């Protein structure tokens, strides 16, 4: 028993908001992921590590815009970079080349040795679309391999086996191809092979068997942003894809700048052919990046036939240039926010990584004290709290042993103590999560855990 308010009593105005929103938007949502039962809270304003909802409550925010806000809410340096862009340059969109585009690319090349050239998009999803097209153009092969449990955006050929249920999922070694949405292009689906993460021999078998058709292998180098590759898994994929002429794409949309100034690729010392990014690099604005080897990236150049492919017959130019465009690509406000974000991260990265490790070990101490089968799982400034007895988690199938119901129950109770994570979601740390925020969170855990597990 406890004297907490019920969820409904605590969120009356949110409930009213959602009822209004449902009249004009399906489910009252602009994105399915925003939903949770019985209804999500609506937020009015935010500052630093805190969210303030329409009912006037304050929460420590660990969702942080699905990991995009690595500086927390309303960081002063991002604010002033945006203001400066508007005031000095007089507008927020040129539709022409401008200095920040190259300046930002130079910074990315410095952090990511695998990148020789970059293109910008407006989301992580769009970045993956471009990466796939580049891989297909480069190899002349039009099928794709992806991993079970890995999310790359709502793309027909990739929104497959992201969260299949046990009955449909097939064997652990050769997972079935399961659509995650209605309405997807059947043909696109059939062109995708699904692989098991951290099971190199099985990946090798599937990729080798279909090497004549597969042009791209895309992977979240930390599965779901938190599960580490075992042994030399990523290196071995790198060697194999090179041998089979398959373009290796690291989707670092979630992981970019989460494990240090660079990606997971730096941590494991593997250079993918292409990398896609989003979230953190856009400083909380809509953004995506594709970066990689010049020999592949160069295919998007409108000069393709003239400079990069200078040795080719000029009549090939139309065939060789790959179309990539977008009204908002390289948006000045987004790049201003992104550059300011990278400046702050250079200063704050090591402190944040240390603080996250401390936070995780304090959480684990609470779990241990109460003999709970719970762990804080992740590398760098992203982690999740999982209820499981399993010693090591190697891929999607291991999550079958994780108790999601208990986690949701705990999130509900923590929410009532002023801690906000969307139920079941990751903890995305930011530089705004200072010692005070972390201490408050640990205290909330200390309070909640004995009531859930007396
Ligand atoms: N790739 C990964 C690994 C992601 O986590 C996400 C978003 O959560 C995406 C791609 C899609 O990015 P966006 O939501 O910006 O389209």
From TrEMBL:
<keyword id="KW-0413">Isomerase</keyword>
<dbReference type="GO" id="GO:0042286">
    <property type="term" value="F:glutamate-1-semialdehyde 2,1-aminomutase activity"/>
</dbReference>
<protein>
    <submittedName>
        <fullName>Glutamate-1-semialdehyde 2,1-aminomutase</fullName>
        <ecNumber>5.4.3.8</ecNumber>
    </submittedName>
</protein>
<dbReference type="InterPro" id="IPR049704">
    <property type="entry name" value="Aminotrans_3_PPA_site"/>
</dbReference>
<dbReference type="InterPro" id="IPR005814">
    <property type="entry name" value="Aminotrans_3"/>
</dbReference>
<dbReference type="InterPro" id="IPR015422">
    <property type="entry name" value="PyrdxlP-dep_Trfase_small"/>
</dbReference>
<dbReference type="Pfam" id="PF00202">
    <property type="entry name" value="Aminotran_3"/>
</dbReference>
<comment type="similarity">
    <text>Belongs to the class-III pyridoxal-phosphate-dependent aminotransferase family.</text>
</comment>
<dbReference type="InterPro" id="IPR015421">
    <property type="entry name" value="PyrdxlP-dep_Trfase_major"/>
</dbReference>
<keyword id="KW-0663">Pyridoxal phosphate</keyword>
<dbReference type="InterPro" id="IPR015424">
    <property type="entry name" value="PyrdxlP-dep_Trfase"/>
</dbReference>
């Amino acid at each position: 028993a406890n004297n907490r308010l019920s969820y409904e009593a605590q969120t009356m105005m949110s409930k009213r908001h959602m009822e209004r929103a449902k009249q004009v938007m399906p489910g009252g949502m602009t994105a399915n992921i925003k939903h949770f039962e019985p209804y999500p809270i609506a937020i009015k304003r935010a500052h630093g590590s805190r969210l303030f909802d329409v009912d006037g409550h304050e929460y420590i925010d660990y969702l942080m815009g699905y990991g995009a806000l690595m500086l927390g809410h309303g960081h002063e340096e991002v604010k002033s970079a945006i203001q400066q862009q508007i005031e000095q340059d007089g507008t927020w969109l040129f539709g022409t080349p401008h200095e920040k585009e190259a300046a930002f690319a130079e910074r990315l090349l410095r952090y990511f040795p695998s990148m020789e050239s970059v293109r910008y998009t407006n989301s992580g999803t769009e970045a993956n679309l471009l990466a796939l097209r580049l891989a297909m153009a480069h190899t002349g092969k039009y099928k794709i391999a992806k991993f079970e449990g890995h999310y790359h955006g709502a793309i027909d050929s990739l929104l497959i086996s992201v969260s299949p249920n046990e009955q449909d999922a097939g064997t652990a070694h050769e997972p079935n191809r399961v659509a995650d949405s209605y309405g997807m292009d059947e043909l696109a689906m059939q062109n995708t092979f699904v692989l098991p993460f951290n099971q190199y021999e099985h990946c090798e078998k599937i990729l080798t068997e279909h090497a004549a058709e597969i042009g791209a292998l895309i992977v979240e180098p930390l599965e779901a942003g938190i599960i580490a590759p075992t042994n030399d898994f990523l290196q071995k994929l790198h060697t194999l894809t090179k041998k089979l002429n398959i373009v290796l794409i690291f989707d670092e949309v979630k992981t970019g700048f989460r494990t240090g100034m660079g990606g997971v690729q730096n941590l494991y010392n593997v250079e993918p052919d292409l990398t896609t990014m989003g979230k953190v690099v856009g400083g909380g604005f809509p953004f995506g990046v594709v970066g990689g080897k010049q020999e592949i990236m160069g295919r998007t150049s409108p000069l393709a036939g003239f400079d990069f492919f200078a040795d080719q017959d000029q009549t090939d130019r139309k065939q060789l240039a790959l179309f990539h465009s977008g009204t908002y690509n390289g948006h000045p406000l987004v790049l201003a926010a992104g550059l300011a974000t990278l400046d702050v991260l250079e200063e704050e990265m090591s402190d944040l990584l240390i603080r996250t490790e401390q936070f995780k070990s304090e959480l684990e101490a609470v779990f241990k004290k109460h003999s709970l089968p719970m762990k804080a799982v992740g590398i760098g400034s992203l982690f999740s709290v999982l209820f499981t007895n399993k010693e090591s988690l190697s891929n999607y199938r291991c999550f079958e042993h994780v108790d999601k119901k208990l986690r949701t129950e705990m999130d509900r109770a923590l929410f009532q103590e002023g801690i906000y994570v969307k139920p079941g979601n990751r903890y995305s740390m930011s530089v705004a999560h200072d010692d005070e925020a972390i201490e408050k969170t640990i205290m909330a855990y200390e309070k909640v855990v004995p009531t859930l597990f007396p």
